[in-house]
Amino acid sequence: VQTDDHLRGSADAALVIVEYSDTECPFCSRFHDTMKSVMAEFGDGGDVAWVYRNFPLTSLHAKAIPEAVALECAAELGGNDGFWSFTDMLYKETPSNDGLDLAKLPEFAVAVGLDKADFTTCLDNEEMLKRVQADFEEARASGGQGTPYSVLLYKGQQIPLEGGIPFDDYNGNPGMKTIVEQVLAQ
């Protein structure tokens, strides 16, 4: 976990879930809701923290990079709270698979309390794009092939998870609630 990460929860949490995600991925959208449930269940007690990193899959989603840059601009202008407010709104509003009109991004920024002019200017900031590209390269280096891709960090272990795992168990497979409980019980 790095000091400039987008962190929900305590940096001292026993379990840190690093999620690599693409805002235009429908599975990522569902997993975003799953992670909000994980944090509601385990985050308040300080057991779990959630780190969000960008993993825009441009071969599937042409709008993923501009949206990832917008997330970074929300963080730049609104800090960690601005990032999460904007991210939550974007995932709530996007129909996925390049269905979002990018002209709505500044509207979302205003809705979460960011300055529209500053936000619009930031969208062309090369540093934000470099941050997105660094996240992408890190996702690939850590084994990410698709989105969402997560790495659970617990007591020096790195446990990779692929896909949009639901919160509750499904079809005989453990959901995120069970996975988190099992990891924390180790």
Describe the structure.
By secondary structure, the chain is α+β, with helices and mostly antiparallel strands. It is built from six helices and five strands. The protein has a five-stranded mixed β-sheet with strand order 1-3-2-4-5. A hairpin with a 2-residue loop joins strand 4 and strand 5. Helix 2 packs across helix 5 and helix 3 (105-111) packs across helix 4 (116-122). The mean pLDDT is 96.
> Order of SSEs, N→C?
EEHEHHHHEEH
N-end to C-end Cα span? 21 Å
Secondary structural class: alpha+beta
* Residue share in β-strands: 15-25%
List the helices and strands and how they pair.
Layout: E1 6-8, E2 15-21, H1 26-43, E3 48-54, H2 64-93, H3 105-111, H4 116-122, H5 126-141, E4 149-154, E5 157-162, H6 176-184
Parallel strand pairs: 2-3
Antiparallel strand pairs: 1-3, 2-4, 4-5
Summarize the structure.
The protein is α+β, with helices and mostly antiparallel strands. It is built from six helices and five strands; from the N terminus they run E-E-H-E-H-H-H-H-E-E-H.
